[in-house]
Amino acid sequence: MTATRPDIIRSLLTVGYSSRRAEVSVVGLWRERMLVAMAIGYPDASLRTTSHFRNLEQAFWPPW
Fold it and tell me: What pTM did the predictor assign?
């Protein structure tokens, strides 16, 4: 199975919602912009994660 960057963006925007428009109406345009930026910035041209993504700090939960 092959995937493209637009496929990834479309999937990110519609998971849990019936459409992109439904997602934006519920959570706002900021979430759409954030997810698109992540889909563009984290994978490289061959859709492998970038070193920037691999070096992100992992949050520990719970914080104690």
Answer: 0.69
